[in-house]
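Here comes an entry:

___
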Amino acid sequence: MSELQLSKAPEDRAGISLSGAAGPADQAPVDPRAATSAAQRGFGAPAEPSLNVGVIGNCAYSALIDARGRAVWCCLPRFDGDPVFNALLHPGEEAGAWAIEIEDFASSKQWYEPNTAVLRTQLFDSAGQGIEITDFAPRFYSRSRYFRPLMMVRRVRPIAGAPRVRVALDPRFQWGASGPLEVTRGSNHIRYVGPDVTLRLNTDASISHILSRQPFVLSREYNFMFGVDETLLDGIADTARSFEQETIAYWRTWSKRLAIPFEYQDAVIRAAITLKLSLYEDTGAIVAAMTTSIPEAPGSQRNWDYRYCWLRDAFFVVRALNSLSEVGTMEDYLRWLGNVVIGSHGEHIQPLYGIGLERELPESMVENLAGYRGMGPVRVGNQAQEHFQHDVYGNIVLGAAQAFHDHRLLSRAGVAEFPHLEAVGEQAIRVYGTPDAGMWELRTRARVHTSSALMSWAACDRLAKIARALALPERAAYWHGHAARMKEEILAKSWCEERQAFAESFGGHELDASILLMVEVGLIDARDPRFISTVDAMEKSLCDGPYMRRYEAADDFGKPETAFNICTFWRIDALAKIGRKAEARQIFETMLAARNPLGLLSEDTHPVTGEMWGNFPQTYSMVGIINAAVRLSAPWDSCI
């Protein structure tokens, strides 16, 4: 944290211990949730878990805040860490959460401060009295670096009447298995000592009221700063106010520099900010989503941990932000990607890694968490790190290609870096046309997936273009030769005459939405009759009205029930390119309406209920919003 504002709390600080785990079993830590009194009866049960939540973050960590201002998910010390707030996956008395409640709650409204990641929530009681909560994670430039502490700032003020509020701060540890081993207090702070980390709340509100959950009249603004165990060097109110102003200024400046389309501007800005929040700036990794184990469909058991960096997903994030002229995220990601490539020594590259470049992400179950709406299991880790997914090599080359061509970059890639990327291309050649798990990570079936072969072609095609840019004609000819051979074979072997469509595998019969990427990466022209016929066939087989599923065949868990949002966006792009732009616009409007009230999307949408399912917020889905808006928007010069 910034030495201007914060310092490490000394180990021998003075403080009063309220609970301790070192004593006998009958002296267990006090749980303030056990306290009940007549004065607290006006505070009802928390809202049921849902994905109508907002995300705050600062490229170091993130938190999810529900529509009533309750922090229901937050992993520390990084995206893939222990969820100190886990209520999204564990409803009930033992949930980890942080609520700032209004007595006799009646209604709420929530929005982002425009063009920022600063979230406002207003709560009203039945008498019309109200409060406003401002939530954010500090992020701004200071001392030649980005200041992004592991700190959640909450500022609360009355906006009508004299409402009573209650603060309920309940951090949990070790995936919900443990509460604080000890809680200590000072004049303006509370420390929550966990088994592996100590967290600290600095506040100018009453420490006694927070510890006892005593309701109190909100007569003025109060500030809460919660994170790792570090003290403040300046006043709490002054620091919180300054952090808010600086954070708002940072995000507004960042948003102002985006090259956004004329139409759908607010949707694009919100999507872009959300993608930026998915960057773990310390290493340059980009997480696929900020949650684990939100099921893809109700009771489906399709519960996965997405808090890691998939090379495929990260490429699409970088590509979408590049389309808005935001290349900083690409520069950060290329640091991470370069380490992956060089560390592979020209051999097998996993489809995903930990955000700190961890290779092993063993998958396990958390038995003591019930799961989203009680729909377990809760998984930590992801078995897909063991898979062979051959599209990964194309995604690496595609993700890095712009660095060789973009003159805006301070550190452009060149002749020195090219051999490392060529080693990735050689691996793409070696695995081309061999069976793999495919981009949908099928666990019990291997085929020669068309999408994997497609990305091997893309690797060779882009390497040829890079070689030409570097004035290496022999290398350009080498890569062009491989690309030409692969293109001819892909178009021949993936074509299914009976279906009049390109199939999901060589010699296959089934359809898969990933085939739409043929046009996205440039293998085939969108007006080619075979591609148009493929789109028609997919609409009959994979679409539920405007929504599109990933594939039609049953997988390890049966047939998919929900629509996969990025597939719907691929369809939008394909329709626009083949000349059916009005239909594409109509479907895009449906997807915009499917977002939650704050403009965010998860992985999946139920075609009947319209409800969001799957991990959240899903970078793939937010990428789709940007790509569709850029594709469909009227040009600026048509209106100004």
Remarks:
- Residues 602 and 617 are 5 Å apart (CA to CA).
- Residues 236-256 form the longest helix (21 residues).
- The longest strand covers residues 151-160.
- Confidence is low (pLDDT under 50) at residues 1-5, 7-15, 19-30.
